[in-house]
Request: fold
Amino acid sequence: DAGVTQSPTHLIKTRGQQVTLRCSPKSGHDTVSWYQQALGQGPQFIFQYYEEEERQRGNFPDRFSGHQFPNYSSELNVNALLLGDSALYLCASSRTWDTQYFGPGTRLTVL
Amino acid sequence: GDSVTQMEGPVTLSEEAFLTINCTYTATGYPSLFWYVQYPGEGLQLLLKATKADDKGSNKGFEATYRKETTSFHLEKGSVQVSDSAVYFCALSDQDGANSKLTFGKGITLSVRP
Reply:
């Protein structure tokens, strides 16, 4: 049983560019959450998707948007990248309200 | 809002030493509590959880008890190993209706020397 997978593993972008990160949830999971983890900090909640709708959102600007597909996979999009967006982006999947399981993350570097 | 406070780190221990990592929380509802572990260069792995007061979560020799009266969820292990070296995060999920986001503490780095 494959766990949560994310792609790409690493990404380097320049300021002002746009980026798309992808996540495939664990089999049987219908809910996907995204977190941003800055260096040396705990993960911060970005948003959560369920039934292809954004169910809850953290304190992140509109530059951060997402999507969930009918197969429950998800994308995180960040527009107009800033240096401060450099972080590890973590995807977590769960069955509705159950425990969240995390993927390995995508390391985004903005130059 | 919800918050999680972890003791300041880093923590360095010798192999076979006793480990305690403190965690306290603030939440409006009745949260579930979690410990996640992050090994170098990896994502987060669930270590253990507890969903109601007085529950004890345990896994791989680690334990934590949900103490509602002191709003705490301290992590303990009787004898640490070098392989336990990692960053440990305490987190809560305040499941209000359909919402179940995780709120994390800042994490603490544990180094175990042989």
Summary: The mean pLDDT of chain A is 94. The longest strand of chain A covers residues 87-94. Chain A touches chain B at residues 4, 6, 31, 33, 35, 40-45, 48, 50, 55-56, 58, 90, 92, 94, 96-97, 99-105 (CB under 8 Å).
